[in-house]
Write a structure and sequence with these properties.
By secondary structure, the protein is an alpha/beta fold. Helix content is 19%, strand content 19%. The strands form five sheets. The chain has a seven-stranded mixed β-sheet, sandwiched between helices. Strands 4-5-6 form a three-stranded antiparallel β-sheet. A two-stranded parallel sheet has the order 9-16. A hairpin with a 6-residue loop joins strand 4 and strand 5. The longest helix has 18 residues, at 314-331. It starts with 89 loop residues before the first strand and ends with a strand. Keywords: Apoptosis, Hydrolase, Protease, Thiol protease.
């Protein structure tokens, strides 16, 4: 029997006690994400970015071995349909956490190695570039908290009103602190100590400070506990819709659109791979090349949803993302390394028990229930 996925998790217990927003009009759209739509040059223009960004993916990623232990542990618009002006600037930044070698020291070295991150990067690139996105990555080199936040700041500062900036963080997250100070942090690949992790507050503050009014920012977190990253529903976030993808359709009538020029700040939407107490998982996933590779289940599903050219509004996009996610979670347990064919090892009820005992519910957080619109 193929071992089941294990989570991207390494929980630190310090206590003794217990989409995408898009610029668009309320009209029919030919693209699944208006933010993804538009005839633009798909060649990445890196001139406006700092030199530390990787320009190209690594030469070739090895086919995963049979050892599956490196799995990621722990105004109203009636149809919510959007369309983006072709002149909108679209950029995607992919940040890979996780240690890069088996002997890495420091805090990052206490977390499991994630071998699927380069594959997720390549898969996301192939999905977003045809949509007119220039893709920038921070994956193959170790980056610390300061470098990551500085590069995010620069990535956002080049955007003008109406532009779209998508930022993906894929890797480990954990909870630190005690009592009222208990919080979630993201683990950079270069993280010598716990205090060198990236807090949710510092991520959101970087976006607020460096993204201009009218800029649409989509943060995508593929980590354990990622549902806890968006700000809580307090008085400063009144009207925010924070929902599982499965329940998104129930919130459609509450959404309203907003012109970018009427926004007092950036519109920051978050898409998270799991709930606030759930793990995210990396395992073999089907491939169009007939060679399964290690992928984060959620990012694999995201790439598949983005690749569908016939999705025209929010509801079918979110539904496709959820269905793709359900599919890969079930199918990945049966894949034979080196082939998209089943390895014949699916065992009932063992595999069903694993799926039921390892729940994972991706979420979407829309600030103020506002979706951007471009006139």
């Amino acid at each position: 029997m193929v071992p089941p996925p294990s989570p991207r998790l390494r929980e630190t217990e310090l206590c003794n006690s217990a989409l995408p927003p898009v610029l668009g009009l309320c009209v029919e759209s030919t693209s699944p994400l208006p933010m993804l739509q538009g005839p633009q040059n798909s060649q990445a223009d890196h001139k406006g970015l700092q030199g530390s960004f990787e320009r190209q993916p690594s030469a070739s990623d090895p086919t995963p071995s049979r050892c599956h232990t490196t799995i990621r542990a722990e105004s109203q618009c009636s149809n919510a349909s959007f369309m983006t002006a072709p002149s909108v600037g679209r950029r995607l930044l992919i940040i890979g956490g996780g240690r890069k070698n088996s002997s890495q020291a420091g805090y990052a070295g206490t977390f499991s190695r994630l071998d699927g991150i380069p594959n997720d990067r390549d898969n996301l690139r192939s999905a977003f570039e045809p949509r007119g996105y220039s893709v920038h990555t921070m994956v193959d080199v170790e980056y610390n908290r300061v470098q990551i936040l500085q590069n995010i700041a620069h990535f956002l500062s080049t955007a003008v009103e109406g532009d779209i900036r998508v930022i993906v963080f894929t890797g480990h997250a954990t909870r630190i602190g005690c009592g009222d100070d208990r919080r979630i942090v993201l683990i950079p690949s270069n993280c010598p100590a716990e205090e060198d992790a990236i807090s949710a507050n510092s991520w959101y503050e970087t976006v607020r400070t460096h993204a201009a009014p009218g800029v649409v920012v989509i943060s995508i977190f593929a980590t354990c506990y990622s549902g806890a990253i968006p700000p809580s529903l307090d008085s400063d976030n009144a009207g925010t819709i924070n929902t599982t993808l499965k329940d998104f359709a129930f919130h459609l009538e509450k959404l309203h659109t907003q012109h970018p020029e009427s926004a007092s700040g950036p519109t920051h939407i978050a898409l998270t791979s799991s709930g606030d107490a759930q793990s995210s998982y990396e395992y073999f996933a089907p491939s169009r090349s007939n060679t399964p590779r290690l992928h984060d289940h959620f990012l694999w599903a995201l790439a598949e949803a983005v690749k569908r050219p016939n999705i025209g509004d929010w509801e079918p996009f979110v539904e496709t993302l959820q269905n793709s996610f359900n599919f890969v979670r079930a199918v990945s347990l049966t894949l034979r390394p080196g082939s998209n064919e089943s390895n014949g090892s699916y065992e009932f009820p063992n595999n069903l028990d694993w799926v039921l005992s390892h729940p994972q519910s991706p979420r979407l957080a829309i600030p103020g229930g506002r979706l951007p619109v471009r006139a």
